[in-house]
Design a protein that fits this description.
This protein is of the alpha/beta class. The protein has helices spanning 45-53, 91-98, 104-113, 129-143, 159-176, 187-193, 222-237; strands spanning 7-16, 19-29, 34-38, 60-65, 77-79, 147-151, 179-184, 196-201, 206-212. It has a domain at 77-143.
């Protein structure tokens, strides 16, 4: 049984000054589903993550996490475009910094879960870029193993490292069963990892495509990437 959070998003309107960013964004995410949010740069994907996280509460509508508002629900795990580790803390210290009541043994198990069994005493300057991103994922799991919000976690890295992180994330999802919202601009990320792809476009932004990928991950091919790319390109041309 999935241990992830149930998510309900109903954003009537979100504005910045006189500009309306969202108007009528509605979707539900069942526990344990991996949803890729994809769309052109500036459409508001990262802003939508902040609404789900409860970081931004200035909008009309309602977001519910397990039947609670984001500010009342458990804080989600958040992985940003860059690791944002505290340089003076060790790998384990970075987990404890965001979750002071985390038992150290639990932190060590989380680091082991992302392949960093021997890195708990190392500081960010002693870690490779890929290892830093692994620590960032472990830190997010320390905060919440039920809802993970990933904001372009594979941006600005080479395809080999991205592939390693894809496998890592897939393993984490299998082990912990979180609900995952993945913001990405890359159809490949969506095709490899997601159970469902939601495409946003326009200003105000709206959902132009919501597709369940019912082919098992291991059986997916380049055709899935091409299909998502076509949907995204079609939305851009409309």
């Amino acid at each position: 049984m999935a241990s992830g959070a149930q998510l309900n998003v109903s954003v009537e309107q979100k504005s910045f000054g006189n500009e309306t960013l969202f108007k009528g964004i509605y979707f539900e995410v069942p526990p344990g589903q991996i949803v890729a949010l994809i769309g052109p740069s500036g459409v508001g994907k990262s802003t939508l993550l902040r609404l789900i996280a409860g970081i931004d509460t200035d909008y009309a509508g309602k977001v519910m996490v397990d039947g609670k508002t984001p500010t009342q629900a458990q804080v989600p795990g958040f992985v940003f475009q860059d690791p944002r580790l505290l340089p003076w803390e060790t790998a384990l210290g970075n987990l404890l910094a965001v979750k002071p009541d985390l038992p150290p043994d639990t932190g060590r198990k989380l680091l082991a879960g992302v392949g960093l069994e021997a890195a708990e005493h190392l500081r960010p300057s002693e870690l490779s870029g890929g290892m830093q991103r692994r620590v960032a994922l472990a830190r997010a799991l320390a905060v919440s193993s039920r809802l993970l919000l990933l904001d372009e976690p594979f941006v600005s890295i080479d395809r080999k490292l991205a592939g390693e992180l894809h496998l890592l994330l897939a393993g984490v999802v299998k082990q912990f069963g979180p609900t995952v919202i993945l913001v990405t601009h890359d159809p490949y990320d969506a095709a490899v990892l997601a159970d469902r792809v939601i495409i946003l476009r326009d200003r105000p932004a709206r959902v132009v495509s919501d597709t369940v990928l019912d082919i098992p991950h291991a059986e997916r091919s380049s055709d899935i990437v091409a299909s998502i790319t076509r949907d995204l390109d079609a939305g851009m041309r409309e």
